[in-house]
Specification:
Elements (H helix, E strand, L loop, with lengths): L1 H15 L5 H8 L8 H19 L10 H23 L8 H31 L5 H30 L1 H22 L1 H4 L9
Helix pairs in contact: 1-4, 1-5, 1-6, 1-7, 2-3, 3-5, 4-5, 4-7, 6-7
Organism: Arsenicicoccus piscis
Main location: membrane
Protein name: Major facilitator superfamily (MFS) profile domain-containing protein
Length: 200
């Protein structure tokens, strides 16, 4: 279960974190200045803002028992949000500024979904890991959380050179949905996981 929680998070971050492309998207797709500007700031702030709002309204997390299903659905929601954000970037062409706010809203929704995923995965780690290895697994958890977005920066940068930044964002979101769905189908026990459930 814990290995799968790391795998699905790596999928979510590796293919669905287009952060490295935000400067180009802000400048090329939304007509912002090269040095930064409103579009740049909005894109960079959108995911963290969504995470904060997701945390503020996270009371429902403690009432959810099916943690495996919740993780998969949260990551699928993240992938869909990134897909829609990429789609919102396509027609912009530096002209349609309102699309910036559509993209930002999608990214914020993704941030809220990512917060939910992180909460459930952290709970799974604390509950399922044996006490003698919990510290080491927490270290792996930290490496995955910190390293996944950095690997995504490289992957998205390479892909954007071929597809363009907006298409790379959109395709990455689709890949998150497809790959996480496949992973959960291959390991159905992860989908069914509930804390304290015998044989889960």
């Amino acid at each position: 279960m814990l290995m799968m929680s790391f795998v699905v998070d790596i999928i979510a971050m590796l293919f669905g974190m287009p952060r490295a492309l935000f400067p180009e998207i802000a400048h090329v797709d939304f007509g912002g200045p090269q040095g930064g500007g409103l579009a740049f700031a909005v894109l960079f702030a959108a995911i963290p803002v969504g995470s904060v709002l997701g945390g503020v309204f996270s009371g429902w997390v403690s009432r959810t028992r099916r943690h495996g299903r919740a993780v998969v659905l949260a990551i699928v929601a993240w992938g869909l949000a990134i897909t829609l954000a990429g789609a919102a970037m396509l027609p912009a062409g530096g002209r349609a500024v309102p699309w910036l706010w559509v993209a930002a809203a999608c990214l914020a929704a993704g941030g809220a979904a990512d917060m939910a995923s992180a909460a459930f995965r952290s709970s799974m780690l604390q509950g399922a890991a044996a006490e003698e290895v919990r510290g080491r697994l927490q270290g792996i958890f930290t490496v995955v959380v910190a390293g996944g977005p950095r690997m995504a920066d490289v992957l998205h940068g390479v892909a954007a050179g071929r597809l363009g930044a907006a298409w790379t964002t959109l395709v990455g979101g689709v890949l998150v949905v497809v790959l996480v769905t496949i992973a959960s189908a291959l390991v159905p026990s992860f989908w069914r996981f509930e804390p304290g459930r015998e044989g889960a």
